[in-house]
């Protein structure tokens, strides 16, 4: 018997088995796929397949860069092509002529996007790769990308945007794994974390610990708000609306006109029996923005009460023919996350240029960012004595246990409308105070 033993497990391979097996041999799975383990412990996926009457073997990369699931998918795809008269081996040889990372992203997403649970995840995949990876490694051949290339993508955002960077690393790893299986590159995956990037970059959990998004100090809110309202541009208006509603950036940027009802008034809410704290304010506006579950982080539809100020902002916005977005980019698509962040960055830069301290987080002394405004709102709500559940619902956070959520049907829409009106009054306090002083002087 040869030194390369033929091993046929009683059942299909498992990820755990692939990770731990060390004895040399061939370990079969299905569709001709088997794991070859060399004497030195090196592992390689191989598929035994018949192409146009000729039996051959195809290399499908090596674990862990190519996990079991991906190897199975490629083996099944190759078998289907061969059954229809195709030649997976010839395609693989042709693919070795070269594919750029950007092309690999397109090919990978074309095959995999349908597996993602909702439209939000599909857009996030594309947007993070386009924003951070494409400018650095987009034009480079996947066969030439190494660890240093991946680090050039990740290091600039690893500390400030740890969660985004961590997800981006995983997405680059998946794209490069696909490229390996498809025959566009060989060798280990340079974006792999364990035993690779983990030796260079600090663990995400340690970086992110205590690394909350920089928030605006409550004492600076009204001054910052007055500054924002002096700024022009669609991104500035989106940031203004984000502040009025305490919504997430992605929810605002992806908002479409069909999600908004500017005239609806929920006179009775069968699930919220508590009367509004200030009926006069509630009567001012019955407008509601309903964010569909597919666009929400928690996967649950969210209603946002729109105050008269929010309605006035929306009614003053221009509309672009052919674009469904309320806050649209110059070409009609959705605004990028960076466009809103850029508004706050320019506001801070103007403060520094004027030799003022600017808009800094009181704890970490870093410039406030859009997402930090939600923390500012939450602090304000707590200091004003608003119920915890009401504030958490306004932020679209889960509240209570799973059982409690099953029974919690009320979203306190009218009461939240009054709370948001109070929040806006706080935002405008400096503007109102300046106007009052001006009147007194006159």
Automatic annotation (TrEMBL):
Question: What does the record give under GO molecular function?
Answer: DNA binding
Q: Where is the Core-binding (CB) domain?
A: 99-180
An example of a Gene Ontology BP annotation on this entry? DNA recombination
Task: State the residue spans of region: Disordered.
Answer: 264-286
Record-linked Gene3D superfamilies: 1.10.150.130, Integrase, DNA-binding domain, Intergrase catalytic core
Residue ranges annotated for the Tyr recombinase domain, each copy included:
211-420
**Record key words, sorted:** DNA integration, DNA recombination, DNA-binding
Comp. bias intervals (Low complexity): 275-285
Instruction: Give the family per the record.
Output: Belongs to the 'phage' integrase family.
Name of the protein in question: Site-specific integrase
Species name for this entry? Thetidibacter halocola
